[in-house]
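Dear H.,

Thanks for agreeing to be a second pair of eyes. The structure we're designing against is below in token form, covering all 281 positions.
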């Protein structure tokens, strides 16, 4: 296929995509129409849609791990729906609209990749990441930047999921030398926090128990950061592994599953564990 043929095919595909996007915009307007729109959609807000945004993101992640192209395509559509709904809510509230979302994204892409859109030069992966971070930091508005590291981080993480916030805290403070030197250090800290949780449980004070549990979770997330492991993806795999093992337990126990004692479950768990180990070896 000649370069002209490839160009024409791409051009036709882009034109078709733009037409489909116009239809999508119209469909979203219909969903949110004050008279004829969907009753459920009309009452949604940015905040009320957060659980669905989380759910759709999780389902997309699952599809990616399963390497299922059809599901990835479908879940990307569901995620795009969330973007479209939030944009329409912004328009209804006279705060912003879809065009602003797209223009801001285009501006960010161009500004943070000057070696592509301005200088037309090849750079290494490391340099591209440095450029991205430098420009990102320079884009922050001065009135919103506090003088201290901790105040800046408090501002940055206040609306983030806690696990993401922990990752940001760890990555920032280690640039100032506040970092772990080895996994042994982290395990020592983890053991210390576990012992403190045990003492808190003995005290039966809910606030202390929650605080100490949070310390353990924070330390575990630091360990994942040190090992360069994504905690969410690791947990996704463990959830699947658990359910695979439980499926074997269900098969062995049959209709008597509710009659199993804790000791029975321990025995069946070992059977399931060994069976899957042989299957995966």
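And this is the sequence the design step returned. I haven't edited it by hand at all.
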């Amino acid at each position: 296929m000649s370069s002209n043929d490839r160009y024409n095919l791409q051009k036709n595909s882009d034109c078709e995509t733009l037409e489909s996007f116009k239809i999508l915009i119209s469909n979203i307007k219909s969903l949110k129409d004050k008279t004829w729109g969907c009753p459920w959609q009309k009452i949604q807000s940015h905040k009320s849609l957060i659980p669905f945004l989380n759910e759709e993101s999780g389902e997309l992640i699952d599809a990616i791990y399963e390497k299922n192209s059809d599901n990835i395509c479908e879940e990307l559509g569901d995620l795009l729906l969330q973007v479209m709904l939030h944009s329409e809510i912004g328009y209804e509230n006279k705060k912003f609209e879809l065009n602003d979302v797209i223009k801001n994204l285009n501006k960010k892409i161009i500004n943070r990749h000057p070696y592509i859109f301005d200088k037309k030069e090849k750079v290494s992966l490391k340099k591209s990441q440095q450029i991205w971070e430098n420009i990102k930091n320079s884009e922050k508005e001065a009135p919103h930047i506090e003088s201290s590291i901790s105040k800046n981080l408090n501002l940055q993480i206040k609306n983030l999921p806690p696990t993401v916030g922990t990752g940001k805290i760890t990555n920032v403070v280690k640039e100032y030398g506040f970092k772990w030197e080895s996994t042994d250090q982290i395990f020592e800290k983890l053991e210390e926090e576990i012992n403190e949780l045990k003492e808190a449980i003995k005290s039966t004070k809910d606030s202390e128990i929650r605080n100490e549990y949070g310390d353990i979770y924070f330390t575990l997330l630091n360990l994942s950061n040190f090992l360069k492991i994504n905690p969410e993806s690791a947990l996704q795999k463990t959830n699947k592994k658990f359910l695979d093992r439980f499926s074997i337990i269900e098969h062995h126990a049959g209709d008597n599953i509710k009659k199993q004692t804790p000791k029975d479950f321990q025995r069946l768990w070992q059977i399931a564990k060994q069976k899957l180990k042989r299957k995966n070896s």
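Two observations from my side: Residues 9 and 176 are 51 Å apart (CA to CA). The domain at 3-104 is CATH 1.10.287.1080 (Helix Hairpins).

Warmly,
E.
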